[in-house]
Amino acid sequence: MANASTSLMVRLDPDSKSFVARAAQLRHVSVSDYVRSVVVAQARREIQAAEQQIIALTPAEQQAFRQALQEPIVLTAAQRALGALMRGE
Predict the structure, then answer these.
(1) Which family would the database say this protein is a member of (predicted)?
(2) Which of 3, 29, 47, 59 lies at a 20 to 30 A Cα distance from 65?
(3) Per-position b or e across 12-48, b if 16+ CB within 10 A of its CB
């Protein structure tokens, strides 16, 4: 049974299903083949990143992360109160 396979059922809302179907059509493959190729490839990337302890960010996410690091921290009143409590004030 070298080519044995198993089924995986996925529920999608109509809008999501439409996007998946359109993407499959663009690649000229069935919806099942599209989902299989995209999901398996993404799963492999995530497992590899986890094993290497790497966080992968898109260029937009990288920019947002850099920007967040450069902005001054503004604590809420609750955060300031918690900090005082932890310091024993």
Answers:
(1) Belongs to the TacA antitoxin family.
(2) 47
(3) eeeeeeeebeeebeeeeeeeeebbeeeeeeeeeeeee
In this structure, what are the phi and psi dihedrals at residue 51, rounded to the nearest 5 degrees?
A: -65, -35
pTM recorded for the entire structure:
0.57
Give tens-digit pLDDT for 21-79: 999 999 999 999 999 999 999 999 989 988 998 888 999 999 999 999 999 889 999 99
Nearest CA to 51 out of 43, 63, 41, 39 is that of 43
Structure tokens that stand for 22 in this block: 């359109």
pLDDT in tens, 21-36: 999 999 999 999 999 9
In angstroms, what is the C-alpha Rg of the chain? 22
